[in-house]
Fold:
Amino acid sequence: MDYVIDTLNNLLDQTAFASLYWGNIVMIAVACIFLYLAIKKGYEPLLLVPIAFGMLLSNMYPPIIEEGGLLHFFFLLDEWSILPSLIFMGVGAMTDFAPLIANPKSFLLGAAAQFGIYTAYILAIAMGFNDKAAAAISIIGGADGPTSIFLAGKLGQTGLMGAIAVAAYSYMSLVPIIQPPIMKFFTTEEERKIKMGQLRPVSKLEKILFPIVVTIVVVMILPTTAPLVGMLMLGNLFRECGVVKQLSDTAQNAMMYIVVILLGTSVGATTTAQAFLRMDTLKIVVLGLVAFAVGTTSGILFGKLMCKLSGGKINPLIGSAGVSAVPMAARVSQKVGSEADPTNFLLMHAMGPNVAGVIGTAVAAGTFMAIFGVK
Structure:
């Protein structure tokens, strides 16, 4: 009888219930909310489903993310900056840079939207984070999950990587909710109704030369951007050169989806209750929101300036797409513009600042790496 009781006690001790505490329950609930938002509401399901499921697993079975655990090996690929760089290759292969080539002024809107990153950096230092942690946190303002993970790994902030990545991907998913109120607050009805002229056609030669020229110029000036900008432009060259269709298809589909699974699940698994439910996490979430809101606002305000200088030819709404959530931010610009005038078509115009924002966020990350002497 004692043997039976001891066996049952041992089995009970091995269940997740034996080590579960209130923090794990909270994180499991958060994971379920993320799954609901992804599956029921459709908020970036390709990101939120693996992140939420990784969160669910690690809070029931913490060893899965600890050294030797399955997801620990996935996480090493994040820490070594391999997966974020491959994500950029996939984004490059999936994205048409023609709107940016046709309207180079879009670079200015993408650059203006990066103001949120530097604002968050200053605020993070003021809130007690060290300079490298502040830099890693501030990249959330670009609404760019892969770059946030990349910079956190490069700057040795792996302890904050889970909170940074979850905040970045959460705000990427919530772009359709967060941005419209800001866009409507800073623009008038007349500005939102502005129709922009059709973009000029872009030749095949221009599309091929663009990724090559951008890589040479940016990487020569700021070599630390090579992993992100280089992979982004390589993916786009696959797309545009016309002679490596198999590589382009692989980068856009099979490779991209494999990387998203590995990256999302491993990042979600880092959000154990012990690591996530801390005051620093709350600060990161708040700073990320501030950075994202300031980035959206600065893009719109610069768009208003360009509108004035152009004699009313530029719709300020496209400035909000300067954050690098591709193509979600561009779609939000289109949606808000069409609400003011159903015949208004801003999507292709907004894709210019959107793509510029991806490059701008990568440059911001490379700048921080250069400042801190990290290669």
Summary: The chain has 21 helices and no strands. The CA atoms of residues 98 and 202 lie 6 Å apart. The mean pLDDT is 90. The two ends are 64 Å apart (CA to CA).
